[in-house]
Design a protein that fits this description.
The structure is a homodimer of 166-residue chains. The first copy, chain A, is mainly α and 166 residues long. The first copy, chain A, has one domain (31-152): Winged helix-like DNA-binding domain superfamily/Winged helix DNA-binding domain (Arc Repressor Mutant, subunit A), CATH 1.10.10. Chain A has 6 helices and 3 strands. The first copy, chain A, has a 3-stranded antiparallel beta sheet with strand order 1-3-2. In chain A, helix 1 packs antiparallel against helix 5 (111-131) and helix 3 packs across helix 4 (77-90). Chain A is globular, with a radius of gyration of 20 Å. At the A-B interface, helix 1, helix 5 and helix 6 of A face helix 1, helix 5 and helix 6 of B. Chain A binds a DNA duplex (30 and 30 nucleotides) through helix 4.
Chain lengths: 166, 166
DNA sequence: CCCCAGTAGTTTAAATTTCAAGAAAGGGCT
DNA sequence: AGCCCTTTCTTGAAATTTAAACTACTGGGG
């Protein structure tokens, strides 16, 4: 005699899984907090906003359609819209109409924004390095990347990739 | 002739490191978003708030000093204060004066809050499992836990641990 | 051409988080 | 006791994020 399907005992996490999960949650909280403060102090913007400038700097002609930028950064269009409004006030980014589609907008990294990025990048890389990569073996770095990729891919809507950004 | 110290070329990330870092950032964004939506839909609270209920449920007598709970959850006391105010409005948590220290407050998980937690836990565990552990080999789970622990420990203020929570 | 479902992006309000400041109590010192 | 510094927690305002509604445009049929 088996238990009814809707009363199945859930598959709780094993000890190893529980340990990994709690460690991840802690690492995450601490890291996000740490990097947010570092960037807020040194560059005057939160980590996610910095990430937007980075994506733009990688794109051809330093510009990207709003939807593409949102997809690259894994944030909602609404959130991006607010963020760009703020970055525009700072003069780091500029909005530009898309010629081919009247609905579209391009977010363009300004020269000033690019300067801010170049100024902030070394300190940020150093912070990331100190928090993560200087503490891991090359083997662990490989494992970390592989594992994160698996998780990210699993949560990714099919074919949601933008070829020109990785 | 060497470059002046303050003009050193920063140690940029290697390709492997860059790959790992971008993968992590994406996994993180997608995961946080996914779990926030799952819990908001199924239990009516964000992931961090759920985490607070979990910590309380693990504590003896289902209660914890504010500072201890904040440390366990790796959030600021200010953030916790606001969060508890909200959870209190929902009736999931109750504030209680600390007998031994008149400055202190205990956050206490109410019976109702515990019920909410028990109701939400299976679905949440399932979501975590589907997003992470069902996609990794046992070996990778071990690696993931080890790596996250190293990162978390590196960002942890010395001796900030609370013995009664892990 | 007109209609219509879908897409791009914005906007509003509500919720959450951050930041800086502040109230209250503890604890050591003289 | 009185003073000083620290710890605990809260508060209020500003910044950011979320959720849902909304405008404008596209593209495909009839």
């Amino acid at each position: 005699m088996t238990t009814p399907a809707d009363a199945e005992e859930p598959r709780w996490l094993t000890d190893d899984e529980q340990h990994a999960w709690q460690s991840y949650l802690q690492a995450n909280m601490l890291l996000e907090d740490h990097l947010d403060r570092q960037l807020q102090r040194d560059a005057g913007l939160p980590h996610v906003y910095y990430g937007l400038l980075v994506k733009l700097s990688w794109a051809p002609r330093h510009r990207l359609r709003m939807t593409e930028l949102a997809a690259a950064a894994k944030i909602t269009r609404s959130r991006l819209s607010h963020a760009i409004t703020r970055l525009e006030k700072n003069g780091w980014v500029r909005r530009e109409d898309c010629p081919s589609d009247k609905r579209g907008q391009n977010a363009v990294l300004t020269d000033e924004g690019f300067e801010v990025l170049k100024k902030a990048a070394p300190g940020h890389v150093e912070a990331v390095r100190a928090a993560i990569f200087d503490r891991l073996t090359p083997e662990q770095i490989g494992q970390f990347g592989d594992i994160c990729r698996i998780i990210a891919d699993g949560l990714q809507p099919e074919g949601a990739d933008l070829p020109w950004l990785r």
